[in-house]
Automatic annotation (TrEMBL), chain A:
Keyword Cell membrane attributed: yes
The protein, known as: ABC transporter permease
Organism: Tianweitania populi
Family statement: Belongs to the binding-protein-dependent transport system permease family.
Entry GO CC: plasma membrane
Domain of life, source organism: Bacteria
Membrane topology: Multi-pass membrane protein
Membrane-spanning parts: 12-31, 103-123, 135-168, 188-206, 246-272, 292-311
Keyword list, A-Z: Cell membrane, Membrane, Transmembrane, Transmembrane helix, Transport
Cellular localisation: Cell membrane
InterPro entries: BPD_transp_1_N, MetI-like, MetI-like_sf
Matches recorded under PROSITE patterns: ABC_TM1
One BP annotation, GO: transmembrane transport
From TrEMBL, chain B:
Top-level taxonomic group: Bacteria
Keywords: Cell membrane, Membrane, Peptide transport, Protein transport, Transmembrane, Transmembrane helix, Transport
Record GO cellular component, one term: plasma membrane
Protein name, UniProt field: ABC transporter permease
Taxonomic path: Bacteria, Pseudomonadati, Pseudomonadota, Alphaproteobacteria, Hyphomicrobiales
Membrane topology: Multi-pass membrane protein
ABC transmembrane type-1 domain sequence ranges: 74-262
TM stretches of this protein: 12-35, 78-102, 123-147, 195-219, 240-261
Amino acid sequence: MSIITSLTGKIIGIVFTILVIATINFILIHATPGDPAMVIAGQSGAADPKFIADIRAAYGLDQPFLIQLGTYIGKVLQFDLGYSYRQRADVSALILDRLGPTLLLTLSAFFVSLIGGVFFGALAGKRQGTWADLAISMVSLLLYATPVFWLGLMLVLVFSIQLGWVPAFGYASIRASSFGPWDYAMDVARHLILPVLTLAAIYMAVYTRLMRSSLIEVSHEDHVRTARAKGLNERQILSRHMLRNAAVPVVTFAGLQASALIGGSVVVETVFSWPGLGRLTYDAVTARDYPVLLGLFLIMSVLVIATNLLTDVLHRLIDPRVKGR
Amino acid sequence: MSEFFRTFLSRPAGIVGLVLLVIVCLMAVLAPLIYPGSPWDMAGMPFARPGEAGMLLGSDTLGRDIASGIVHGARVSILIGLASTLTALFIGVTLGCIAGYAGGMVDGAIVRFTEIFQTIPSFVLAILFVAILTPSIGTIILAIGLVSWPPLSRLTRAQVKTVTQREFVQAARCQGQSTLSIVLRHVLPNAVSPIIVAGSLTVAAAILIEAALSFMGLGDPNFMSWGYMVGAGRTVIRQAWWMSVFPGIAILLTVVAINLVGEALNDTLNPRISRA
């Protein structure tokens, strides 16, 4: 029963969120000075009159406000996100095309930051007050204050331009189409390293600080003292009695960061010319391609919701007590 | 008050932050005196290395002085950081007060609304907002304020909820004071210190969002900003590292400074919940 009710609750929540986002989109379209049809078409003056007339008919722009809102939401729920006049393609097709690289980037960064944060946080917490703790805390303080795009550029400067270890931008080499499947995967992986490190670094800093204080808190608990009294060695105490407990708040918090992670991917993809949704966002901003921007906003929100569900699953895996809820 | 300063100044990290922050603010205020003339004007030859042609930090692709851009850029960062935080505080504190004090259905609705806003990718919403309403200082402040209020609202709600249960609030209610007067005169003043700390950290986050927006080409075209400078230097980073390195350091130091001050404020104002 509990799983079914929690699932229905989640689905209702998701639908409701999508409705709110569609409404924000709709309000923004109408808040612009000028003709909403022009916003849906792209920049003013770029579209021909017949196309504008088609949009006006399709979205019922001569109808009362609420009916227009209804029409818009109806279209969104059918995954009809409009047409990009500039790119001459359906917005939903453009977005689907770019979804893979973004998922690869954000999911890799999510796991790298989580694993790195738990590792460094545990290291710092375990050696509280030592130079290792101080160094880790200093670095995370600095990383936390670093603009993502600048960190990306600095990594390019050092690791691509100075040292030449990894490619500076792009998804795969130009010759990649002639590669076999294994070589192709390795090529993409080499291109993935810097973007993932950039995106992961800031969140790793946050999780490190959280994990550190969480571990210190757990180390004062009774069950840890019991384990120590039983004569377990420090390593066993850490791996079997402290890590899991201390990691729970970190994972919970990581789930809440999903929306920031997607936002960060926009900047990172811009820096590294990574052909995902973020790069599409940058191109759409530069071209003032509003239908694409509106569609991207919607899809990225859905991605955040999906990540929240994923963290829920992770949460259940590391903390069996959650199952009962 | 003197004890407040004594506690604050006993943290070395807080002093470092405060000194850095004072320097940045002085740069912002004195920019027209330090570098008279527009930071957009050509000051020397393009692609001058740091120290060359009389320009301390070099020049950019159009021969504009990087150092002048950094000093003038401080104005935009500080202005937008403060103004958008005030906007976020206004929205967040108002909603949080209403939710925490009213309770019941109203509380439930506001909490749900806040949760939805936390799900929405805030940076993407800010991009959308600024792009559609055309980039200007006003739209940027509004956009950042609009995406930064949810944590402040949650915090205010929690604070107001605990303070409302205290006896002096009940006493004020028994005296027949109006709700508005109770909230403004009795509840908020006793709930405010964590909100101040959170607000100071929001300034840092707002400066980072502003930098990212202008890096994406969504800055106000009339004002020089650090994010714009990094974005403009990005394409030539192979030939001219200094164009993107120095403005980035300016952002980094400013944000570190504000975070350090925020943490020191936290230790001073909320000694009980500060870290051991």
